[in-house]
Each structure stands twice: as structure tokens, then as C-alpha cells.
Amino acid sequence: MSRDAGTALTLGILGGGQLAQMLALAALPLGVRCVVLEPDPLAPARLCAEHICAPYTDPAGLERLAQCSAVTLEFENVPVAATTLLEGRLPLRPAPAVLHLSRHRGREKTALEAAGARVAAYRLIETESDLAGALAAVGGQGFLKTAELGYDGHGQARVDTEAGLLAAWNKLGGVPCVLEGLVAFVREVSLGVARGPDGHVSFGPLTENVHVNGILRRSVYPASSGPETQAQARSLARAVVEAWEVVGLITLEFFELPGADGKGGEGGELIVNEVAPRVHNSGHLTQDGGGLSQFEAAVRCALGLPLQDFLPIHPCGMVNILGREDGGEPDWAALDSVPGTHLHLYHKASRPGRKLGHVNVVARTREEVLDGLDAVERILYP
After folding, report:
1. Is the pTM of this model over 0.90?
2. d(CA 379, CA 368)
3. Taking 60 as the threshold, does the pLDDT of residue 4 lie above it?
4. Domains of the chain, with CATH numbers?
5. What are phi and psi of 175, to 5 degrees?
């Protein structure tokens, strides 16, 4: 594909939130312009991309995307009708077949197992009759999650009794769900992986993640996992993208089990928690770690440009900025005073629990990064 000024590459993006914004910002230095289809008139990506303010299934909007060099997405719950209208007209990466798997927890787990990955014990709950015996089958306690549309802790509930399971299913609307057994993990880690049209596979960093109330609070690289665990993560990621015939960037979230020492040392097995068919919150730290960012890797992959691993050169970490209950703002001057910080704001209106931005921290050692992340968290979450 040419990148001459007269024949500039264009990348269409379904969705116009902060991920689309960061994709567009990474695309510009490559000579790539982005076009986003997003119904929100205040979409963050409107600031750095052509914004088509229309529903995702709008025929005129989809026709504009169809004129791009390729199309990618920033969230997995794009209406099927939108991808159906685009499929076959231009490269759509990841493809609708991948979205079909990743958007439904049951299909995703079946496909992961078929690729050789281990998942937590689970049961499909489609009708009330499926509740009987399901909790015992997954170990007596777990999480009930809607099969589709759940995110950041929404659409799920922890359960440990039959009565609680029934109540949770009713509260979630009696929709199809997946009951997942509770996993006694030592840490949560994630790994981005990109596969190009030529089959070349590139990897991002294995990041160690901490969630609070179902929302990612912080990520750090390098993870405290040992080299065997890191190699296992890459092996599993490669197996999944090749089995699913992925062209594009996806992210795998793992539970790391205790190792031989029972404390998370070397040798702990990885269980795949879920797959995001896109760039991921835990990969934001790649923006400032000195290497290729996950966003540039995703742009390159979608357009068939040369790929390389998108690993940070320096130890780094990330803390999310969430909207506060009192509507107040953090002490920005205090944040700026923490050594190694890089602020990324999404230009979104504040509401409690909403992701408004993130702070990346870069330092010489992992310990210095952790000190910086602690300082940032004290400012953001006093």
C-alpha cells in the first residue's frame, strides 16, 4: 500500500471512544488518516479523526468506511449488521468470525478450549432449568456473567449459594449467562498479540494487572511472572490467533495459578479468562515505554504494514483515572510532580466510575515504577 500524500492510507474505525482516539493518534505519524463511525456527538476520537456522527448501522456511514483502506474496531459489541455490510468489501480486521466468538462468553470458551487453552470451569445458563446443579458443577462458588455485553464489572455477580444464583440470574434479566467457577489465582496478567495478513505474529508485553470493583486499576511491566510463564503466555496467544485465523490485534487476559512453591513462583499454569478482539486498557503503558505502542501495532496490522513486537524498552506502568463520586478533579499539579509520569486524558465528561484518562509511569526499574504507581494512586484515590 502506498503512503504517498496523494494516495494516503485511511483506516476506518467502528467506534469513536478513547481507544479510537489513541488509534488515530498513533496512525497520523504513519501517514494514515482515520475515519470513525460513532453516534456520540462528543466522541473523543472526533478531535483527531474524521467523525461520522451516526448509528453504527447507518448505510451512509458504512459506505464512507467502505472507501477506507481497511476497517478495525475499538469495541467488540459492534452490531452484526454493520460488519455484515462491510465484509467482503475491504479488509475488516479482526474479521466478523473472530467477533462472533469473542462477543459471546460461551462460544469464546469453547473456541479457546479447541485451540488448546485452559479455561475456568463453566456452565452455560440459558433457561432457569439450567441453574439446577450448575453451581456445584463449577466448584460451589463463582461468577455469573451475561453471555454478551458485559464490561468493566457490569453484567456479572458473585454467587456462592443456589438461592443467590437464582437471584443473580433474575437481577441480570434472565438473559443467557455463563457461570464461571472461582479461580484461586496468584495474579492476573494479560498479553496483546497481533497477526498480520501474511501470518507473522508479534507480541506485546505480559502485564500484571490489578482490578478494583471489576475495573482495571493499574498495570505494570514487567510482570512478576517468571520466564516460563511468559513463554507459556506467548505460546497460548499464538495458538489462539492461529486457530481462530485472526488477522489483527487481540488481547488475552489470564489467571496465573500458583507455581511449584504454591506462591506464584515459576511454573504456574495460565487459565484464559477472556479475549478482547482489540487494543486493551492494560496495554496503554506501551505508549510511553520507549518501544512500539499497541496502538501503532494495531494500525499496522489492520493495514498490512510490517509488524514487530510491541514491547516497552523501559519498565513502565499505568493507572486509570476514573470519574469521582463528588464530581471533583485530581490534583493535576501533584500528578505532574511524580517522576516519570505521562498524562493521557480522553476529553470525556465526568461521571462516577467512568474512565476519563490514565497516567503512565516510566522508570529505570520495576521497583521505581511501583513506587510511582503508588504515588499516583494516592493522588487519584485518596
Report:
1. yes
2. 17
3. no
4. 5-92 (3.40.50.20), 121-181 (3.30.1490.20), 187-380 (3.30.470.20)
5. -85, 165
